[in-house]
Structures are given as C-alpha cells and as structure tokens.
C-alpha cells in the first residue's frame, strides 16, 4: 500500500466505543482480511487446517485469564469491533494473537525446525543534541498488504494520545504515545512460549499506556509472556531491548550499553529455549553446522554495519536506509513481493516504522509497505 493512501482513523471514547469506531470504519476490510487469513492458512503453515487451529487455539495458548487480569479493556475493544464489523468475536480475538500464532500453529503443524522469521528492530541513543531513535520493520504475510492503517487514539489516562500502526481488524502492531514512549518488537520463535502468558498485542497497548521508559521496562518484568520476543522500547531519555521468554526477561546490549541496539530473529542473550526447537536445532547444527537460519544472521549483520559506530548520531535518513536495505538479495532486511519466492519462512515487509523521540517534536515516520519502494510519511500529535 502506498502510504499516501493509508487510512488514518481517530479512535475516541471508551474501549468499546473505540472498538466500534474501528469496526464501523473498516467493516469491509476487516471481513476481507479475515477471509484471506482463513483461506491462506494452509499455504502459510504447511497445510495446517485453519479450523483445527481455531478449535485448538484457546486450549494451547490459554491467554484469556491474563487478558482479563492485565488488559480487560482490550477485550471490550475487540468485542466492540466485532459487533460493528459484523464478524465472529471469538475469531477476531484469536486473530489478534499474531505472534502467538507462530508457536501455536508451529506446534499443530509440527514445524519446530522451520519457524517463520518476522521483523527487524534497532534503537539508538542520541548524541550531540540529536534525539533518541528506535524503529521496526514489521514483517508479516503478503495477505495483509493493502489493509494497513494508522490509528490516532485516546489512551486510558486523561490527556494521553496514541499513534498506533496496525491493520484492519488488529488492535495494535506497534506505536508511540504522547509522553514519548515508543514500542516495537521482533519475533524470537526459538525461545520458550508461555501458555497462559499475556499475548504480545496486549503487551503493546499496555506499554503504550506507560508514562516513561522505566515504567515500560518495569511492566515487561512484571507480566508473564506468552511468546518469545525481543522488545525495543524508548523515550526521549533512554532506549532499550529486552529478550523475553516464558521464564526470563534479559536486557540485550551488544556493546555493553544501550548506545546502539539492533536485532533480528535469533536469541542473543536469553537461553530459555523451546524444547522442540532445541531438538530440531541439535539435528540442524549437526548436519549443517548452524542452529539458526541464514536469514536472521544476514539481516542482523546488515543492521550492525549501519549502526555499529557509537561516536556518531543516527539520523532518520540513516534509519530509513537501513530499513530499505537489500544487502543480500535473498535475505534482505527489506523484503518486497517476490512472485517466484518459494521460501515461506521469510515474511513480507508490511510496514516500516521509525520513532524520533525528540521531547519537543515527537515524530512517527511510517511507510505502509516495503521501505525500499514505499514513501515514508511523518505523523505527530499536533492534531490528535
């Protein structure tokens, strides 16, 4: 989708009212995307039947009690969206669980040695008066292209405003709040999932309610995690990355500090591995000498090449170039549509997000498609 054609929708009022606005404004796209999601399920997950996944999801994921405890208003928001969009509420709630889909579907389809790779992230502390900057390439399936949206939303705290990148029918993919807290993530499917933990989509919205970086960091340590992820968070004063799994939350600092941080889809510091992955990795490492797929290493190296020099500030243009990079033609940071591709493991770059955390001018730079071929637009809170 061309960013200039992306819908920008205001979500106001109570949680249920925000859901209803979302559902009414995007009724047809939500119905279409749910249909495409169902129809492409077998292709994306090695023949797995969608209805088996739907029927087994709650038994395996067990996330509803955590949602009710930590983020009950989000259940109201999804219910309001389902009512207004005229879709099944249970299906729409399952649809929110984008990262949990990876390990639930992989378990059902027995894909322990062929886990999908999604998203690249970076964070940079400002220098010489330049602001902190963090960013995420949101990688997902091509089925979602054309359904990107930006929400300008009320937070739960009085006066708090949110800028949320998402797709029709999704509560949140990532975002920034008017206090300057910005949040992104990348999947680490090799880490242990936590049935009964809080799903990533709900963690996102909870983090966007935080007043500052330290509150967001504290929340990551306090809640149980449903999926293995690397979280990138920042505000005008600090940035950080945290590899999380069912049993551990570990800060990731490749240079010993938070000056420069970059990540792809293999664990760097967290060793709380999924048991099925370890069995598959042992076989793979014995046969190939490498436990992790080549793609994640090459994308990490591409980001490292651009962000390793901590003596110079990172600019927005450098960040855009990093997320547009195609250094390796087969495994680029920016993955465009390839009609001849046979590797379903590597996802399509659905959205590119860069958050410029200048306390006087908070700016969200967004490209609603692969950054190599999609224009960035800049958004702020002036008219939220």
Share of β-strand residues:
15-25%
Report the radius of gyration as a whole number of Å.
19 Å
Q: How many discrete domains?
A: 1
Tally of contiguous helical segments: 13
Class computed from helices, strands and strand pairing: alpha+beta
Order of helices and strands: EHHHHHHHHEEEEEEHHEEEEHHHEEE
Task: Provide the CATH topology.
Answer: Penicillin V Acylase, Chain A
Strand order of the largest sheet: 1-4-5-6-7-8-9-10
Average pLDDT over all residues: 91
| Overall CATH architecture | 4-Layer Sandwich
Topology, number of strands = 14
* Largest sheet geometry: 8 strands, mixed
Name the poorly predicted regions: 282-289
Give the CA-based shape.
globular
Kindly provide the name of the CATH class: Alpha Beta
Give the end-to-end Cα distance, rounded to a whole number of Å: 23 Å
Verbal overview:
The chain is an alpha+beta fold. The chain has one domain: 4-Layer Sandwich (Penicillin V Acylase, Chain A). It contains 13 helices and 14 strands. The strands form 2 sheets. It has an 8-stranded mixed sheet, with helices on one face. A hairpin with a 4-residue loop joins β9 and β10. α1 runs parallel beside α6 and α5 packs across α6. The longest helix is centred in the first third of the chain and has 14 residues. The protein is globular and about 50 Å long. It starts with 7 loop residues before the first strand and ends in a 5-residue tail after the last strand. 51% of the residues are buried. About 2% of the residues have low confidence.
């Amino acid at each position: 989708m061309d960013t200039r054609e992306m819908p920008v929708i205001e979500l106001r009022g109570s949680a249920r009212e925000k859901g209803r606005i979302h559902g009414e404004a995007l009724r047809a796209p939500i119905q279409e995307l749910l249909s495409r999601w169902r129809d492409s399920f077998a292709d994306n997950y090695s023949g797995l039947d969608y209805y088996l996944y739907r029927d087994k999801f709650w038994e395996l994921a067990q996330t509803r009690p955590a949602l009710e405890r930590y983020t009950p208003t989000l259940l109201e928001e999804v219910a309001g969206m389902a009512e207004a969009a005229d879709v099944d509420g249970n299906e729409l709630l399952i649809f929110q669980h984008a990262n949990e889909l990876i390990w639930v579907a992989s378990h059902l389809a027995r894909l322990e040695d062929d886990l999908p790779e999604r998203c690249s992230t970076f964070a940079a502390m400002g220098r010489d008066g330049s602001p902190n900057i963090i960013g995420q390439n949101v990688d997902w399936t091509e089925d979602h292209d054309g359904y990107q949206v930006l929400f300008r939303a009320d937070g739960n705290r009085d006066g708090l405003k949110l800028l949320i990148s998402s797709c029709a029918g999704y509560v949140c993919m990532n975002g920034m709040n008017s206090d300057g807290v910005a949040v992104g993530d990348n999947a680490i499917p090799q880490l242990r999932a936590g049935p009964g933990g809080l799903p990533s989509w709900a963690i996102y919205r909870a983090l966007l309610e935080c007043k500052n970086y330290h509150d967001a960091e504290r929340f990551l340590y306090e809640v149980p995690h449903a999926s293995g992820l690397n979280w990138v968070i920042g505000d005008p004063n600090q940035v950080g990355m945290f590899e999380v799994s069912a049993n551990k939350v570990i800060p990731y600092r490749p240079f010993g500090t938070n000056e420069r941080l970059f990540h792809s889809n293999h664990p760097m510091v967290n060793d709380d591995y999924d048991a099925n992955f370890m069995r598959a990795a042992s076989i793979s490492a014995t046969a190939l000498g490498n436990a992790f797929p080549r793609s994640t290493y090459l994308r990490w190296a591409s980001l490292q090449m651009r962000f390793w020099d901590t003596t110079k500030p990172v600019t927005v243009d450098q960040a855009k170039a990093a997320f547009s990079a195609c250094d390796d033609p087969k495994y680029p940071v920016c993955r465009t549509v390839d009609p001849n591709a046979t590797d379903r493991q590597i996802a399509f770059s659905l959205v590119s997000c860069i958050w410029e955390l200048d306390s006087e001018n908070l700016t969200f730079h967004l490209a609603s498609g692969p950054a190599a071929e999609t224009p960035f637009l800049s958004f702020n809170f002036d008219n939220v």
